[in-house]
Design goal:
flat; 77% helix; 0% strand
Amino acid sequence: MDFDSDQPQRGNSNKREIELLTIRNLMKHESGRDFMWRCLQQACIFSNMCDKDPMVHTHRAGAREQGLWLDREIKEAAPESYLIMLKEHF
């Protein structure tokens, strides 16, 4: 039986849990939710990313891709806090 082959997978699982815990801890506090909100705003998540200048549009599209990733991470880690964040800013 090869016990070593399972070790990297457990390490990845622990790393992921730490990432999710970090987001949960940040989202517990109003200042953390405010920071995450600003990050999502900078990434054009809640606004139009289109621009007639193709370079600006391309830049915003890349930022939005990162913002969508962060949005998914927050929703997975702290869905209740995500809703609180939305209520605080809308």
